[in-house]
Amino acid sequence: MDFLRNLFSGRIGRKHYVFATLLIVIFYFVVYALAVLVFAGVEYFGQMLGISNDTSSNIQLVLITVLMLLDILATLVFTLKVSAKRFHDIGVSGYWSLALFVPLINIFAGATLLLRKGQESQNKYGQPTYSLPLFRAVFGKT
């Protein structure tokens, strides 16, 4: 449980939140592009090696499914981590990050994360991280 507590503890400011969200989107699309390349590569090498179309299709399906599931899982965990830290910066519980997955409420939760200024002094979640470099604030223990 200490691992989970450390994963979601700390604070990040608005600027760090926006950059982390951009990293999440870039990561997702890079893995998606990789899945397309895997799809094309299996098709191409399957024809070269004389593998039947049915076997080639099954291999493609398994590889792409595993790759996309890992991508979705990583994206989900990182999104929860970053949004929990941003909610901590505002001064509320990180459990509010689950509101991002509820239709209509997610609009207000996302707007709060983007627009509301964080607490300038230390709160129960730690010190502000405005002066930390981006990668240390987002990936490191703050």
Order of helices and strands: HHHHH
**How many structural domains?**
1
Q: Estimate the global geometry from the Cα principal axes.
A: elongated
Low-confidence stretches: none
- Residues in helices, as a percent range: 55-70%
Number of helices: 5
E-strand count:
0
Radius of gyration: 20 Å
The main sheet comes to: none
Attribute tags:
mainly alpha, 68% helix, 0% strand
Structure description:
The mean pLDDT is 81. It contains five helices and no strands. The protein is elongated. It has 142 residues and is mainly α. The protein has helices at 2-7, 14-49, 53-90, 105-115, 134-139. The chain has one domain.
Report a brief summary of the structure.
The chain has helices spanning 2-7, 14-49, 53-90, 105-115, 134-139. With 142 residues, it is an all-alpha fold. The model has no long low-confidence stretch (mean pLDDT 81).
Task: Outline the secondary-structure elements.
Blueprint: H1 2-7, H2 14-49, H3 53-90, H4 105-115, H5 134-139
Helix pairs in contact: 2-3
